[in-house]
Amino acid sequence: MIKVGIVGATGYTGSELVRLLNGHPGAELAVLTSRSYEGQDIAGVFPHLSGFSDQVLVPFQKGKIAAECDVVFTALPHGHTASMAGEVLEKGKKLIDLGADFRFREARVYEEWYGVKHEAPALLEEAVYGLPELYRGQLESARLVANPGCYPTASLLGAVPLLRAGAVVPESIIVDAKSGVSGAGRQLNSRVHYAEVNENLQAYNVGRHRHTPEIEQELSAAAGRDLRISFTPHLVPQTRGILATIYAEMKTAVSTAALLDIYRDFYRDEFFIRVLPEGKFPQTKSVAGSNYVHLGAVADPRTGRAVIMVALDNLVKGASGQAVQNMNLMFGLAETTGLEFSGLFP
Fold first, then answer.
1. Considering only CA atoms, which of 256, 257, 231 is closest in space to residue 246?
2. How far is 278 from 103, CA to CA, in rounded Å?
3. Confidence label for 191 from pLDDT (cuts 50, 70 and 90)
4. Which of 144, 150, 215, 235 is catalytic?
5. Which of 74, 217, 250, 319 sits at a 20 to 30 Å CA gap from 63?
6. 150 counts as catalytic
7. Would you tell me how many other CB atoms lie within 10 Å of the CB of residue 119?
8. Inter-residue contact 304 to 250 (CB < 8 Å)
């Protein structure tokens, strides 16, 4: 059994990790830490875990968690994981960071967009970007994984196949994305209060969202040159889910059937990616609670653009489910272990 530690177990992504790993046949939850709920039973904080986990939440102790666990998941705000990563790795353990500290290849980019100094820049070269559909081979031998952001996961899964196929003009890519409120985390914030979100739809951080350089980094790698994109996120009045709509100018006219064939070919061996039939479009409710991604596409001959739609659960494939997928690869397990369940409907 893989002994697992979760640092920050009482945030939305941390508690989702607990839920998923409780049902994982190859994992054992060894240490759960929380600063806010230290000494409490996690099922007392999250009643949906009653009968599944009765562990007591403990304060974070770097040496203790590294000694008692085979892998450490960090579900913390940016700037908190970098300072502890070195000691975990030095003890021969693996680390999967669900925050932003190791997503960038250059510390300069991280510091520019997140506004804090990177505490472990030497580790950036070693960190593997944890999107299995693109980096599976590297993940199998990794000891430090940077779990992607939720918006980047949706955006990259939709745009990279087009770039790899040379089907679109790279500089033309626009990503328009909507997310449920859980993407903002559990922190108190007036922007996500019920009265602010209910019956409302709003764009935010336009032109300056921190996931923008993450998306650009990986699209640039796929295109083989530096790219800049337009990315606009929106907050919608629902709990879970991301729907990203991607627009790109096609180099030559293709049919919708041919466009979908690009995706079927690219994802032909991918268990969690479902390319929908022509005329069918993704919806967040179809993937809620699951690690699956639904993808649809339309070739618009009037504008000469490809329109790609990607739906996923921001807390599962967009965060904790993908982290478990990465753990499976790192420990030589079947990638789907503990994740083969459908979405919830209605």
1. 231
2. 34
3. confident
4. 150
5. 319
6. yes
7. 16
8. yes
